Amino acid sequence: MAIEINPVPSVQLSKVADSEKHGENSPYFAGWKAYDEDPYNEMTNPSGVIQMGLAENQVSFDMLEDYLEKHPEASIWGKGAPGFKENALFQDYHGLLSFRKAMASFMEQIRGGRARFDPERVVLTAGATAANELLTFILADPGDALLVPTPYYPGFDRDLRWRTGVRIVPIHCNSSNNFQITPQALEAAYENAESMNLRVRGVLITNPSNPLGATVQRAVLEEILGFVTRKNIHLISDEIYSGSVFSSSEFVSVAEILESRDYKECERVHIVYSLSKDLGLPGFRVGTIYSYNDKVVTTARRMSSFTLISSQTQHLLASMLSNKEFTSRYIETNRARLKKRYDMIIQGLKRAGIKCLRGNAGLFCWMNLSPLLQKPDREGELDLWKTMLHELKLNISPGSSCHCSEPGWFRVCFANMSEQTLEVALARIHNYMDQRKR
Amino acid sequence: MPYQLLSKIATSDRHGENSPYFDGWKAYDKNPFHPTLNPDGVIQMGLAENQLCFDLVEEWVRKNPEASICTSDGVPKFKDVAIFQDYHGLPEFRQAVAKLMERARGGKVKYDPDRVVMSGGATGANETIMFCLADPGDAFLVPSPYYPAFARDLRWRTGVEMIPVHCKSSNNFQITIEAMEAAYEKAQQGPNPSNIKGLIITNPSNPLGTTLDRETLKGLVRFVCEKNIHLVCDEIYSATVFKPPHLVSVSEVMEEVGGCNRDLIHVVYSLSKDMGLPGLRVGIIYSYNDAVVSCARKMSSFGLVSSQTQHLLASMLSDEEFIGQFIRESSKRLAKRHTLFTKGLAQMGISCLDSNAGLFFWMDLRPLLKEQTFEAEMQLWRVIINDVKLNVSPGSSFCCTEPGFFRVCFADMDDHTVEVALNRIRAFVLREEQCVHNKNQAGTTLKKRRNWQNNVNLRLSFSSRGYDESIQSPHKMSPHSPIPQSPLVQAKT
Fold first, then answer.
1. Which position among A153, A241, A290, A330 bears the catalytic label?
2. CB distance B298–A299 less than 8 Å?
3. B189 CA to chain A: closest CA distance, Å?
4. Rounded to a whole number, what is the largest CA-CA distance in chain A?
5. Which terminus of chain A, N or C, has less C-beta within 10 A?
6. SS3 sequence, A192-244?
7. In angstroms, what separates the C-alpha of B412 from chain A's closest C-alpha?
8. Chain A contact for B191, CB < 8 A?
9. Which residue from A77, A42, A35 is spatially nearest to A417, judged by alpha carbons?
10. Which of A14, A89, A312 sits opposite B49 (nearest CB)?
């Protein structure tokens, strides 16, 4: 994704257009430029920049391709073009029922059947990017605040704030307890917002967490649910990495907790999901909002008019995801492959003398380079990041771009490359660490 | 959960669906026409869809299996396409869209693929352009009658206001620069002057089906340049022109207006109407303003076109032979349908606005109104839905200031259904004449009838236009549903 240099406008645009809240001037994106200019290629450019800043899942494409080859009916655009006309005309914002059913069923499978999802509550959007923005428009007014635990996905700065005018107030987490959300941190964030005269409308968590690569524990989820209930605010649970948990038993979705309590206070809870990470299909723009609140479902559905999923894509995925034999095999295999990658990178880093947060999910690990900092502050972290980028030629994401309150942590993606490339990256880190010792 | 725990936007009515005008869609949903299974059902004539050329697209799809990443021919490309989420879009897709836009304008304009920005349908494009150009509380001038869903697309989440510039039947609803100037001046007056940021026009027009003449378009370009405000041209019906005059696009006219500030000019496009592919959600913003291109592109993250769809369309739209054939054939078929309807209606004494584009025509039923009021229009409309069993769209839902006009879509049905529809209208008109005759005494009746016929004859030179989407039942609102404004809401402007 190339970064654009904003030209000076001759006629005034809107305040939203002029603001920096699209967030692209963050170092999170600056590394991309270096990568774009000098991308690693095993054959043609073995000394190029290895992209480790992109949370993509490329480990399971073969299964998808295999499915398609065996199931020509998945495409209405193939030889027979059956049902083409109906599909091409279909623009109902409810979305294809078959697709909603397939999504609901897929979400149930990912949670091991521990939570049920009603297809009538599935609202479709073009990506989780749109889902998060849409929910923010519905739950908060301009100037209001959402509480978000740090470190968090840098894109939230744009998705939650840019066009909505809503503020993010951080819930500070730190390494002393593996960056878990504590009741104290929740209260502190709420009070912080109040002291700034901001009305808090909700808490947004990512479970499993990006960038931590770890699931939120049941006890913490229950705390958070208690907190939002006491404050009478909303809870958004972004669960887009739920299918990327290495071991199924370790993921607890807020949906499970609600179900176990007979859905008490469920109307304040909304789940965001997407196929960009678990299925590795970010190009298809498939996002969904699952809300237990009827009014939110209705309003979100209306708003989804601005961001519907292509009917062509809905049809393909409806076919694929309603094949339960395929999906259960996919989920299991994908998990195993991600775990293998994770183990590989953790061991490799350990051998180089680098520790990571103990993770159990996601497409990245949360690496601790604080011992290497010249200065134990943000500047020191950015200096180290530049070294990683320009000397080691590895594009990794500095914790400061994720609003981490402790300097020295980095998010390192491992699922968007081949195993060989990962070996090369680990070798570069190893060499660097060796040199440092000397 | 208490109601106030949602945002003002969520609890506002600006999504437009709470309108009293849902009867038409409800009636259709409950009792949809089917030639064999339900021949007495309601015929849908309120949906501006282009269904006349699917056979051509289907044939292309069958012949080009490699364009789909799901077929064995195409699956080698699957991975690369599936991971592609760059908001610039596939270069070949942008090139193909630029080419299509050029073809639709008869090759008179060149489009730069680097200015092609994606959005979630034209619905997304119109909203995004507002986010780029205006702040909450700012206003855009909008000639009426206009597509009802503008009320949602331009206003709902953006907080932007619309100032209608009413066009009149006295000059065939044409936009005049005088009216535009007057509306602009008026908006600056009073205790709460509006901050007008621009003007949005639809060319070809929905619901009128007419194209703007060159002089007026030049005048509008001059107007916005003088006031230093933006001009957004929604040209989503550009390839539905079926008879002369050909479309004069703002891109063409820009070159002819001396000192035109290109930074003020923006085009909205889509494949939903011209190509009949609304399900694919292909909206395009084409701006001559670099900062707007840059901003809109970043915002397109909220509504990108599926890469699977981009890939397919890149292939289809760059097939020059196919596109040429499609545009020609589509125009031919639209012309045929249009003539079938308008001539048929003329024979019954019903006139329509002379039109040359679109998927609908603007029908004049003023002679059938009991009185020239919107209440009477609604009454007539209910009769048309419930008795004649046609879902057409009342002019008030397009903010037309004169009661009695209806938008009728003609491109979303087969030939047989067209006949049925015409027969029903014929029967209805005859019944109405009979009714009028029976109610009055000899003298007054005859005079009334003659007047009505005379009025009609004067308008026989008008032709009719295509379909449109107007009212949908709440549970099935499509993104292109025009949301009608109740007369009460409209009355305040």
1. A153
2. no
3. 22
4. 68
5. C
6. HHHHCCCCEEEEEEECCCCCCCCCCCHHHHHHHHHHHHHHCCEEEEECCCHHH
7. 10
8. no
9. A42
10. A89
B147 is catalytic: yes
Per-residue pLDDT of chain A (438 residues; tens, 9 = 90+): 455 555 544 577 898 888 887 888 776 677 888 898 999 999 999 999 999 999 999 999 999 999 988 887 777 655 555 688 889 999 999 999 999 999 999 999 999 999 999 999 999 999 999 999 999 999 999 999 999 999 999 999 999 999 999 999 999 999 999 999 999 999 999 999 999 999 999 999 999 999 999 999 999 999 999 999 999 999 999 999 999 999 878 999 999 999 999 999 999 999 999 999 999 999 999 999 999 999 999 999 999 999 999 999 999 999 999 999 999 999 999 999 999 999 999 999 999 999 999 999 999 999 999 999 999 999 999 999 999 999 999 999 999 999 999 999 999 999 999 999 999 999 999 999 999 988
Phi, psi of B4 (to 5 degrees): -75, 0
The per-residue b/e assignment along A153-173, b for 16 or more CB within 10 angstroms, e otherwise, is bbbbbbbbbbbbbbbbbbbbb
**What's the rounded Cα separation, in Å, for the pair B57 and B63?**
10
- Torsional sign, CA A99, A104, A105, A106: positive
Structural element, H or E, at residue B48:
none
CA–CA gap between residue A281 and residue A183 (Å, rounded)? 36
Q: Which domains does chain A have, with CATH numbers?
A: 27-62+331-437 (3.90.1150.10), 78-326 (3.40.640.10)
Contacts of B196 in chain A (CB under 8 A): none
The residue among B5, B63, B131, B282 with the most chain A CBs within 10 A of its CB, best to mutate, is: B5
Q: Which residue has the tokens 């670099």?
A: B290
DSSP state of B463: -
Q: Which pair of structure tokens corresponds to residue A106? A: 């897929």
Asked if the Cβ–Cβ distance from A163 to B299 is below 8 Å, we say yes
Q: Is the separation of the CB atoms in B62 and A79 below 8 Å? A: yes
Amino acid in the structure at residue A147: L
Which member of B26, B43, B229, B234 is catalytic?
B234
Question: Residue B438: in which H helix or E strand, if any?
Answer: helix B415-439
CA distance B468 to B247: 19
List CB contacts of B297: < 8 A, sequence separation 6 or more: A4, B87, B88, B117
Q: Which residue of chain A is at minimal alpha-carbon distance from B139? A: A14
Structure tokens at A105: 């069923």
Amino acid at A243: G
* A331 carries an active-site annotation: no
- Look up A240 and say whether it is catalytic: yes
Query: B39 is written with which tokens?
Result: 């021949």
Active site residue A429: no
**Residues near B407 by beta carbon (within 8 Å), at least 6 away in sequence:** B46, B207, B360, B361, B362, B363, B392, B393, B395, B398, B465, B467, B468, B470
CA distance B315 to B295: 27
**Cis ω before A149 (30° cut-off from 0):** no
Residues whose CB falls within 8 Å of the CB of residue A303, separated by 6 or more in sequence, listed in order: A134, A137, A138, B15, B156, B157
Query: CA-to-CA distance for B312 and B316, rounded, in angstroms?
Result: 6
Interface check B480 vs A, CB under 8 A = yes
Q: Which residues of B touch A284 (CB under 8 A)?
A: 82, 306-308
| Beta-bridge mates of residue B484 | none
Please state, for a pLDDT cut of 90, what percent of chain B lies above it: 77
> Which helix (H) or strand (E) element contains residue A398?
strand A397-398
Whether ipTM > 0.90 holds is yes
The Cα A328–Cα B288 span in angstroms is: 49
Q: Rounded to an integer, what is the distance from CA B169 to the centroid of its chain?
A: 19
List, for residues B215-225, the tens digit of each pLDDT value.
Answer: 999 999 999 99
